[in-house]
Amino acid sequence: MTITGIAAIGAGLAAIGAGLGIRKIGGSAMEAMARQPEMHGKIQSSALILAAFVEAVALFGVVVAFLQG
Questions:
Q1: Fewer CB within 10 A of the terminal residue: the chain, N end or C end?
Q2: pLDDT, the chain, mean
């Protein structure tokens, strides 16, 4: 397997990790909003910020994987 192939696998793993992280954030936010509907705004904004952080880390992982390859 070439270095480019390994870099592609690393980028794919970073994307899968981001998807799993956002799934966890979304599910937990929905559950929290169902339990406390009055906190909808704060929970939603916090979930969006956390999702952005997860995406940033995933993008960093993809860039690092392709720079190594």
A1: N
A2: 91
